Every structure is written in C-alpha cells, then in structure tokens.
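Renewal narrative, Specific Aim 1. Our central claim is that a sequence can be written position by position from structural information alone. The example that follows is taken directly from our test logs and has not been curated for this report. It begins with the structure tokens describing the chain, in the order in which they were read.
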C-alpha cells in the first residue's frame, strides 16, 4: 500500500511547477518547441538515454510526465498524440530498494488518444508498446513490473521475469483498468471498466472484462461515434 501511494503521489503532478532536468552523459531529448507547453516533468538520470516526442495534437489539454532513471533507455511518442489530463511514463527508479535498469523502452504509436494513463517498469530489457489509433480512458495503468524480484526458495532461481507489454493497434482501454506485466493484447481489443488484465489474449476484436480479465464478447469493432458502416445511425437512440 505504501508503494502504491508513493507511485500515485509521484505520477500525478497537477499542482507542481514545470521541471526539465537532465543529468548524466549522452542523453538526448527531441520535441517540437510548440509542444513544450505540454511538458510538466521531464527528467533523465543515467547515460545513453533518449526521449523523442513527435508533433502532438495541438488540441491536447493535459500534460506529460516522463522519467528515465537508467542507462540505454528510450521513450518515443509518435505523431498526433492527444492527452486530456496526464500521461506518465516511468522507466526505472532511484528508490533505495530498486536496482539500476538498462535497455527499457516505451513506445506510443500514431494517433493515440489518452485521457489519463501511467506506464511504468522497474526492470531491464523490456518494452511497453502501444499501437496506432488506440483510445485510452481515465486512470489506466500499464504496470510492466513486480517492482521487486521473487525467487524460488529451494533453487534460488528468479521466477518473475518480465516480458514485453504490448497493446496492439486500435485497442480501447476502459476507465480504471490495469494491464500487468508481460501481457499482449491483439488488434481491436476492448478492455472493460476496472478490468485487471493478467494474461495475454490471442483473439483480435474482442471485449475482455473482470479480475482477472477474460473474454466476454467476440467479433466486435468500436468507433468514436455513429458509423453507418456498422450501424444505422442508432447511437444514442432509445430502445
């Protein structure tokens, strides 16, 4: 609980002043000068890291909180990202109980709309990836880590390896859902309100819900509004 509260306090900086801080060697940050108004916190601690932000959607209302504490890590946000409230990405931590990380990456595709999301890893050699044209609601967590290692007591072997966390293109992540370490969601996945996704899904264009999340409907396509390709303009009509 204390760790969760620490994360919550750190990730949402709605009342803090803008902080742009880089320390270490061979670190690079690239963004459109017009988009600087969207940066709330940008901090790098370590060496050989890169943050690249392509031109954002100028209609964005929110802020970016981007933190790298490690080496050889990269955050890339591709064209036309919209942020309604906050987008937080954290790779690594200087907390006394967290080890140094390397080769961690976070990639966000083109035309992604995010209201409020936190993407985080404390592990080396993994990627958090969000495909093109995704829609992400409020209080969404992509948590590609267990924060601390877990070992088999008898053998001493690590049991909680971290694989890549992949959100395919055209996915819709509902309010207050959590996607946990190593999960892969294929194209067109709809994640229900409050779902906790602990395992990968191998069926495209389906809806998942619950804790742990399971497939509840198949063969679905979502749109941002009425679309006569799939319906007769009946969105919002009383039944």
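The sequence written for that structure reads:
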């Amino acid at each position: 609980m204390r760790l969760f509260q620490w994360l919550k306090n750190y990730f949402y900086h709605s009342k803090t002043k803008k902080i742009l801080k880089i320390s270490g060697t061979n670190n690079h940050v690239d963004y459109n000068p017009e988009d600087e108004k969207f940066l709330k916190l940008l901090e790098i601690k370590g060496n050989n890291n890169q943050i690249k932000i392509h031109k954002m959607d100028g209609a964005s209302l929110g802020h970016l909180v981007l933190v790298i504490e490690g080496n050889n890590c990269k955050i890339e946000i591709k064209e036309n990202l919209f942020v309604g409230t906050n987008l937080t990405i954290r790779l690594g931590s200087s907390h006394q109980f967290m080890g140094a990380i390397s080769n961690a990456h976070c990639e966000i595709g083109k035309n992604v709309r995010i209201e409020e999301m936190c993407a985080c890893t404390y592990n080396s050699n993994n990627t958090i990836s969000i495909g093109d044209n995704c829609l992400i609601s409020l209080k969404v967590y992509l948590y590609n880590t267990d924060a601390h290692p877990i070992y088999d007591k008898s053998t001493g072997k690590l049991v909680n390896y971290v694989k890549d966390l992949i959100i395919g293109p055209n996915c819709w992540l509902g309010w207050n859902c959590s996607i946990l370490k190593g999960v892969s969601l294929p194209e067109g996945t709809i994640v229900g309100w409050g779902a906790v996704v602990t395992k990968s899904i191998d069926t495209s264009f389906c809806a998942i819900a619950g804790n742990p999340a399971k497939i509840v409907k198949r063969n679905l396509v979502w749109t941002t509004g009425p679309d006569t390709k799939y319906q007769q303009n009946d969105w919002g009509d009383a039944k």
